[in-house]
């Protein structure tokens, strides 16, 4: 297998999986928000919750559909492009993916029809149950796929023989060292990303002078969730960093752009890492802070990239910058969450034009952070597919570069057209807003119609 | 106990469920080519909307399940079928987004209709050609695919591709007979009637060609005493096709769909008889491709616990959205 075909296969997988992850990121968090809205509606009978549900469920449906069509691709791409990886890890990863389909995908698929089109066919309680099942499905799906991916980062519970992995303990495989923090990190990332979308779109509706009841309600709920999940995400991210420092020190060294193993390492804010010469250009940093963050001591020792030969190091610049983008976004999101909290405490959440403006700008923030985080985590794993054991260059299929070039080019074209169509319809939907959402179907259901009385504005 | 045949049965079941369930979705998409009226297409697509996602999930189970149950087969079949599988994946993307966007658009509805039928047709051809390639045999050496990139492009495989397009169209037509009324149903009856002889021809061609080209398959079917035990399969297929033809003429609404399913079941049994015990014909058997015992039993525990539940709420979904789709595209 020549290096070009291997690189193309990696680019194709990276592109298709990065594109895919945008949609589950939205649906996991938004699904939870929908369950919250429907629960509040069942509890209070307040029709505003139901109108909000009807609006946001459309956003959910679009993203869910995109997630499904781009996700099917991935379940085949592991085999088409990484056949030798599939052979080597089949004992371990095959069952995890099998469990994902059986326990999560079918659950989602079995209830999404009722969730989206079941108003009037089932009662409100059954409908709420369907929503919850879809939400649980998205979480179970994340559980298995993160377990599989984390095992590739921090493998445990296996025996490596003749180039293939054999399972010794399923518990150790599934609950490998990085799995718990990475699972929480992904779930929280979804809630953060989805809630910034809800907050931003509601701020847009307020700024456009739409009838404010629904926008206010959505903004209030979104900011309440964000006040919890953004700080929680930063704590979980820090814990994940400690796990990685223990099991994947080189990944952390690349994230921080550190070449030498030193005590009292600085926290680098800006640098241009130079992989060939093993140095950073134009480095600016805080003294001793990196040691403090990773070891919780100012003079703690942290390992550098030169611990391992050059062939075993990840691509430093990509990991370094992806990590910085993620952290930068997290800080921005934390500031907005705190600002929102302070405004609500002073009863000014709906009045600050500046806050609304910033919320609109922050709509994509969670997705940028999630993608950057994934790039840092997966590029940081290189040059290994299974960390320290199976080299990425030894995992690709026997498929010629020509075939992959064509499929990669098609993926880039088709996915960009898809993204354009998605953006067009989602912006149209955001612009339209929740007011006229699905009124006929509400009228169809007598229980709903009785309750769908707007509170006086 | 040897768990490998059980795993084989489960994977075959998953792939077969996919062929049946997404088969009628894709078939309805293919029928968009012959029924171009907007109101008809509204009804046709609406009949699929609550189900297509669940139906496609069986394809994911087929893929991930094959990875889990027969990793070596997954690792060699997928690269061997690279081009047809990529074509299928793109086609299913087109088909899936058409479901998303068709009802949200007015000016561009024609475009999404086109993408829907193109995606369905391409997916069917690609799946049929992939099936043909598998029947024709795939070389494996040193645990890797050892053939060429264009091995899948043969006249027999093209015939299988076209055959599956017709097969899915028949599933789609009989689905519409069952789930719709009025004009859409009338046209579906007419198309289904034309498709039955075509299907009969394809089934016959594949059944004759496979033993002719592969002596081991001929040996399986025609040696004594197999020929006696196995003869009910082709006989039952012929009887079912005749019965299907008759029920369509009598304008029965439900029977044609289930008789078409029976034709698919019998074809699948025939295929299994021909290919067993190979999972990658004629180089890797299910025992060669099976994972370690610990992986196999873990997977089968999950399947035993979850597959009945999955089938349960799949059935529940079909029950909730039972009945016919009316004009303007709502369920009665």
Helix content bin of chain A: over 70%
Which shape of chain B, going by the Cα principal axes? globular
Order of helices and strands of chain A: HHHHEEHHHHEEEHEHHHEEHHH
Report the C-alpha radius of gyration of chain B, rounded. Answer: 20 Å
The fraction of residues assigned to DSSP E strands of chain B is under 5%
Question: How do the helices and strands follow one another from N- to C-terminus of chain B?
Answer: HHHHHHEEHHHHHHEEHH
Rg of chain A, alpha carbons: 23 Å
| Corresponding CATH architecture of chain B | Up-down Bundle
- Strand arrangement within the widest β-sheet of chain B reads 1-2
Q: Helical percent range of chain B?
A: over 70%
Overall form of chain A: globular
This entry's quaternary arrangement is heterodimer
Strand sequence of the main sheet of chain A, in spatial order? 1-2
Class based on secondary structure composition and strand pairing of chain B: mainly alpha
**Alpha-beta content class of chain A:** mainly alpha
Q: Characterize the main sheet of chain B.
A: 2 strands, antiparallel
In the predicted model, the low-confidence regions of chain B spanning at least 5 consecutive residues are: none
Helical element count of chain B? 14
How far apart, in Å, are the first and last alpha carbons of chain A?
Answer: 67 Å
Q: Could you explain how this protein is built, in words?
A:
- The complex is a heterodimer of chains A (457) and B (332).
- With 457 residues, chain A is mostly helical.
- Chain A has 15 helices and eight strands.
- By secondary structure, chain B is mainly α.
- In chain B, 77% of the residues lie in helices and 3% in strands.
- Chain B is built from 14 helices and four strands.
- The N and C termini of chain B lie far apart (50 Å).
- The model of chain B has no long low-confidence stretch (mean pLDDT 90).
- Classes of the chains: A mainly alpha (457), B mainly alpha (332).
- At the A-B interface, α2, α3 and α13 of A face α3, α4, α5, β2 and α14 of B.
């Amino acid at each position: 297998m020549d290096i070009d075909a291997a690189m193309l296969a990696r680019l194709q997988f990276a592109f298709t999986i990065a594109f895919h992850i945008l949609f589950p990121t939205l649906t996991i968090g938004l699904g939870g928000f929908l369950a919250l809205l429907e629960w509040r509606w069942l509890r209070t009978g307040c029709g505003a919750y139901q109108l909000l549900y009807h609006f946001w469920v459309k956003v959910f449906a679009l993203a869910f559909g995109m997630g499904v069509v781009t996700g099917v691709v991935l379940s085949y791409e592991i085999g088409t492009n990484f056949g030798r990886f599939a052979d080597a890890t089949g004992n371990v990863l095959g069952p995890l993916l099998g469990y994902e389909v059986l326990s999560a995908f079918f659950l989602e698929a079995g209830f999404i029809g009722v969730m989206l089109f079941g108003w009037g066919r089932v009662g409100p309680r059954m409908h709420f149950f369907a929503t919850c099942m879809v939400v649980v499905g998205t979480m179970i799906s994340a559980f298995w796929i993160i377990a599989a991916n984390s095992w590739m980062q921090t493998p445990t519970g296996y025996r490596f023989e003749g180039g293939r992995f054999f399972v010794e303990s399923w518990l150790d495989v599934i609950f490998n060292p990085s799995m718990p923090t990475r699972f929480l990190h992904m779930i929280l990332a979804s809630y953060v990303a989805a809630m910034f979308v809800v907050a931003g779109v509601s701020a847009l509706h307020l700024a456009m002078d739409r009838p404010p009841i629904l926008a206010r309600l959505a903004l209030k709920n979104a900011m309440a969730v964000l006040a919890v999940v953004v700080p929680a995400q930063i704590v979980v991210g820090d814990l994940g960093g400690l796990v990685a420092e223990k099991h994947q020190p080189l990944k952390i060294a690349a994230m921080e752009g550190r070449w030498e193993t030193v005590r009292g390492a600085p926290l680098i804010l800006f640098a241009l890492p130079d992989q060939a010469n093993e140095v950073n250009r134009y480095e600016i940093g805080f003294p001793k802070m990196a040691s403090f963050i990773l070891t919780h001591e100012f003079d703690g020792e942290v390992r550098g990239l030169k611990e391992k030969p050059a062939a075993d190091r990840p691509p430093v610049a990509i990991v370094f910058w992806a990590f910085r983008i993620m952290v930068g976004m997290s800080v921005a999101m934390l500031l907005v969450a705190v600002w929102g909290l302070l405004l609500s405490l002073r009863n000014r959440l709906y009045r600050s034009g500046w806050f609304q403006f910033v919320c609109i700008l922050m709509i994509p923030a969670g997705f940028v952070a999630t993608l950057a985080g994934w790039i840092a985590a997966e590029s940081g794993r290189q040059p290994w597919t299974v960390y320290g054991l199976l080299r990425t260059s030894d995992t690709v299929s026997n498929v010629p570069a020509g075939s992959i070039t064509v499929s990669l080019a098609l993926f880039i074209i088709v996915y960009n057209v898809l993204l354009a169509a998605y953006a067009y319809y989602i912006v149209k939907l955001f612009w339209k807003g929740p007011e006229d959402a699905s009124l006929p179907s509400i009228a169809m259901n007598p229980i709903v119609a009785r309750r769908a009385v707007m509170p006086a504005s | 106990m040897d768990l490998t045949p059980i795993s084989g049965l489960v994977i075959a079941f998953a792939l077969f469920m996919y062929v049946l369930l997404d088969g009628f979705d894709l078939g309805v998409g293919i029928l968009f080519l012959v029924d171009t009226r907007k109101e008809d297409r509204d009804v046709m697509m609406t009949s699929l909307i609550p189900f297509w996602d669940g139906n496609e999930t069986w394809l994911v189970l087929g893929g991930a399940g094959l990875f889990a149950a027969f990793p070596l087969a997954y690792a060699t079949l997928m690269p061997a079928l690279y081009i047809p599988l990529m074509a299928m994946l793109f086609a299913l993307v087109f088909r899936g987004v058409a479901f998303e966007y068709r009802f949200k658009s007015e000016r561009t509805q024609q475009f999404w209709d086109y993408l829907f039928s193109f995606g369905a047709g391409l997916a069917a051809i690609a799946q049929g050609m992939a099936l043909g390639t598998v029947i024709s045999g795939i070389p494996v050496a040193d645990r890797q695919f050892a053939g060429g990139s264009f091995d899948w492009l043969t006249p027999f495989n093209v015939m299988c591709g076209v055959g599956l397009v017709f097969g899915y169209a028949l599933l789609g037509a009989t689905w519409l007979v069952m789930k719709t009324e009025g004009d859409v149903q009338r046209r579906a009856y007419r198309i289904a009637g034309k498709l039955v002889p075509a299907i009969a021809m394809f089934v016959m061609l594949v059944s004759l060609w496979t033993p002719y080209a592969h002596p081991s398959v001929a040996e399986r079917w025609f040696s004594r005493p197999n020929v006696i035990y196995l003869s009910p399969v082709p006989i039952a297929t012929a009887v079912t096709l005749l019965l299907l033809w008759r029920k369509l003429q009598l304008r029965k609404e439900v029977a044609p769909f289930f008789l078409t399913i029976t034709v698919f079941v019998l074809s699948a049994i025939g295929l299994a008889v021909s290919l067993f015990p190979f999972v990658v014909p004629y180089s890797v058997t299910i025992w060669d491709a099976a994972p370690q015992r610990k992986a196999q039993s873990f997977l089968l525990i999950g399947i035993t616990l979850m597959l009945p539940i999955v089938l349960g709420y799949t059935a529940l979904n079909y029950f909730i959205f039972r009945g016919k789709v009316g004009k303007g595209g709502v369920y009665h």
